[in-house]
Amino acid sequence: RRLYFDTHALVCLLEANGFTTQQSEVIVSALVKIMNTNVDMIYKDMVTKVQQEIALQQVMSHIGGVKKDMIILEKSEFSALRSENEKIKLELQQIKKQVMDEITKVRADNKLNLNLEKSRVKELHAQQDRALTQTDRKIDTEVADLKTMLESHKLDNIKYLAGSVFTCLTVALGFYRLWI
User: Fold this and answer.
1) pTM of the full predicted structure?
2) Contact 11, 21 (CB under 8 A)
3) I want to staple 24 with a disulfide (CB 3.0 to 4.6 A). Which of 12, 14, 76, 150 is the partner?
4) Residue 85 and residue 57 in one domain
5) Membrane-spanning regions, if any (predicted)?
């Protein structure tokens, strides 16, 4: 095998860039193995001149046989094949027209179904929006009621607290008067 680059120069370059001699040799060895493997794979896909000439001769002999068969077919069955081919062309055109008609029908049905589904979805979204709005209103009402109740309870608590404070003050003043 011939190598297409100087392995010693590559080792020296790697050593100059900070690799040890052993590391450089291992790297170059790996590169050589990779290149050899790639070349082997390329050679496997290639054919030799002899193989190519043999294949060409085989193709040429097949072509000669086909030419002979064509001459025989042309003389005996070519007109029958031509008429059969014309019948098949007509049938294909009819089938093509039928298929196009069916495709048109299916497209129209699909458009109609799609439009119906769109309207159903829009109606469903509108119902959901109405239900959501009603739910929001109920929640807002409940929150307002709870705030009102909370304020009422706050005021009650302040009243009780003030009453308790004044009661304690009164009792304390009473004890204070008793002691004095």
Assistant:
1) 0.32
2) yes
3) 14
4) yes
5) 160-179
